[in-house]
C-alpha cells in the first residue's frame, strides 16, 4: 500500500476534512514559532500515520569582510560555497570600538555608514558570484577575530571564510593575524582564501590524512566539500621517512621510495565508510613519501580546496594549528580549509 507524506508538523495534522486550517511547516502560524516534537504525517490508505523526524536547522556560511580586495575575493568564494551547500551567506564587518583616549573620534554614524558601504559592495560581489543566494548582513563594534569566533560558535554556522590578509597588519606577513586567529580557534571549519584566482568548482579537493583516529573528521569534511562541488577527491597520506638522512644513492632508489602495500590498504580501509556514505564522489587515495607541507601543497597545485586538520588547544596560535596546518596556510596554491580535531 502506498504511503503518501502529508506534512511535517509541530502538532498533529488534521485528518483531511476534519478542519479548515493548514498546520504544516509552511503555514503562517508555524513560521513565527519553533516546532515542538516534529513528526511526519503520512496517509497510508485512509489512515493517518505519524513518524518522528529530525528538524534540520537552516545553515549558513559566515564571511568576514573589510573592503580589501582579498576580503572581497573571500566573499565571492563564500557565496559560491553557500550556493553549493544550499546555505545562507552571512557577511560581517567589524568596527573597532573608539578609544576614550583618542584625540579625535569619528562620529559613530559616519563609521557605520562606511561599514554599510563595505557590505553593499560585498553583497554585489556575492550576487555576481552566486545569483539568488540569500545574504544576511551585520555590522558590529568589536575586533574582527573575536566577532567571527563568537558567531562561529552559534548554532547554524557551518563554515567560516576569511581572506589571507585584510587591511591591517604588517605587509610582509603571508597570513594576517585575523585569519590566523580564526583558523586556530574556530569551533567549525575555516576556509582561508588567498590572492590567487579560485579553481573551477569541478576541480578536485585534496585532503591530508595523517593516519590518526582524529583524521576521520577531516576527511569527512573533504568528502562533503567534494560532494557539494561535484569534483573528485584525492586523499593523501604522507609517510615521513628517513630519506633525507640516507645516502643519495639509497634515497633515490625505487625501493626506498616505494610505500609498502599495507600503507595503501590501510588508507583504503580508513576511507571505506565515507566512500559508502558519499557514493557520488570519485575518490583517489595515495601514499607518498616526504614532508607533509611540501607533499600536500604540491598535490594541491590544481585543486580548488586543500583540507588539513589542526589539533590541540594550546594558547599559542602556531601550536594550536599544528605545524602542518601552519605551513600549509603559508604555502598553499589554493584556498585552505582548517578542521579542528582536538
Automatic annotation (TrEMBL):
It comes from the Bacteria. It holds the Pfam family Usp. CDD domains: USP-like. PANTHER family: STRESS RESPONSE PROTEIN NHAX, UNIVERSAL STRESS PROTEIN UP12. Gene3D superfamilies: HUPs. This is UspA domain protein. Residues 23-33 have a biased composition (Basic and acidic residues). Residues 1-33 are annotated as: Disordered. Residues 59-193, 205-340 form the UspA domain. InterPro entries: Rossmann-like_a/b/a_fold, Universal_stress_UspA, UspA. It comes from Nocardiopsis dassonvillei (strain ATCC 23218 / DSM 43111 / CIP 107115 / JCM 7437 / KCTC 9190 / NBRC 14626 / NCTC 10488 / NRRL B-5397 / IMRU 509) (Actinomadura dassonvillei). Belongs to the universal stress protein A family.
